[in-house]
Amino acid sequence: MTINIEVTLRVNGSISLQRGPFPIHKRKFNENPDKEAALAAFTWIKLLRRKSGYFYDAELVKVIYDGENDITELVRKL
Fold it and tell me: Rounded to an integer, what distance in angstroms lies between the CA atom of residue 35 and that of residue 52?
C-alpha cells in the first residue's frame, strides 16, 4: 500500500514543497493511519536533510498525506 505525502519547508526565507508516494505497512496503517504517515514523513525529511545540507536548517511548515490529512504536529513531535 502507498500513500502520497507532501512536505512544505521554509528554507532561508523560501518555501520548498516536496511530494511523493511512500510504501507503508497496510495493517499498521489501518490501526493508526496518522501515526504511520507521520513516521514515513519523518523518515523522508531526515533523508532530505542528509542528502542536501540546505534542508538541515529548514523549518517545517506543513505535512499532509493523501491530499487532505494534516499531520504536521505529529511529525514535529517525532
Answer: 26
